[in-house]
Amino acid sequence: MGSAGYAHDGQVVSTSDFKLKHAGDMEMKFPGFQTRTGAVGVAFGDHDVRMLQVRVARGRLGVTGAAHRAPAMEEHDRTRLATVLREAIIGGGFTGRRCIVSLPCRDVFLQSTQLPMMPDEELAEAVAWEASQRMGVAREAIQSDWIRTGAIDTNGQSRAEVLMVAARRETLDLKLEALVEAGLRPIAVDTGFSALARLLSRHHRRHADRDACRAVLDVGDTATTVLVLQGDSIAFCKRIDVGGLDMDANVAERLCLDTQSAGELRLARLQPGSTGIDPTTDRALREAIRPLATDLARQVLLCLRYASVTFRGLTPTRLISTGTHGHEPGIIEALEATCNVAVHGDDASKTIADLREGLAARKYLATGSPGAWTVAAGLSLRTLDQNSSLGRVPVRARGRSAA
Description:
Elements: E1 6-8, E2 11-13, E3 36-37, E4 40-44, E5 49-57, E6 60-69, H1 78-92, E7 98-102, E8 109-116, H2 120-135, E9 142-148, E10 159-168, H3 169-182, E11 185-190, H4 192-199, E12 213-219, E13 224-230, E14 233-240, H5 244-255, H6 259-268, H7 279-310, E15 319-322, H8 329-339, E16 343-344, H9 351-361, H10 374-381, H11 389-392
Parallel strand pairs: 4-7, 7-11, 12-15, 15-16
Antiparallel strand pairs: 1-2, 3-5, 4-5, 5-6, 8-10, 9-10, 12-13, 13-14
Helix pairs in contact: 1-3, 4-10, 5-6, 5-7, 7-8
């Protein structure tokens, strides 16, 4: 099996099997009028894969192609995965073969730490060894990277807040090789949280917006990611081990259902255009997830307090709750009651509303709320956003720092 490629200073580095090129090879002469189409964003989830290709016209997002599959397969069955991906590509309406890839949360090691100031090369090596030790695997068995967030430490210490990101090479190889077999050409591997930040920072790139601070909650199946964005950069990121599957387990226990039926019942009422369910059942669902929602909200509050106390200017004025399970009413209620910040399901520019409209036109809202597609949309945007800090480097930021 060949070695996989990964993003490094805006370019994907590869060894024998993958000859991947720089992501920024699109050119635009008339940005106000020309429609620009991104690469195919391939977001691998814990139990499914979403593929989305977006376009931008007159500043608004549209959808060129979309596909969703939940393959029933062994974890290391590359041939089966390639077959599923090929079927999705054929029916998805995509243009071109380039794609940007993100791995599931469970396959990505993410840890925030403070390290002494040092040159980039030394920091990269320090992160690699630190990540390998914390993951309990050999240094050669992982691919690591880092984000220097750019947040300003109020304690005046000469230390940098760094997000360590790593994945096992074996896992990365399997996904990339399956995509190549399916007919796509991976040009970069990104992180899901960087893709989400990119999507929600499209209108925060002016100099006047550099201090605009927002919090983002991405509620996935097995975990929730908390982001604090400053301008178009990632200033803080932490993963919390609470997700939609935990909610489903609580609902199943309370209503005497199997976990799959509990999840289908809970998510059905979140679908756009849903007529809702019986008020008594809805109340029972909210009661079932209340302990989890309360615990999640308290952990989010601790994250926001840490960011505010530790770093200058990180006090969000808006909290955006998104992801597959981010629109769960019980989660919204708990956040509003606990975090003392306005909670919304979209940014001020209605980015997710534009995404919803494009997905509805292609009849893909039945496979999940718009929040379930945000990571794939952010991946697709990467090739269109080379002028932003998020577009240049997927897992680093300002000048090899956050974004």
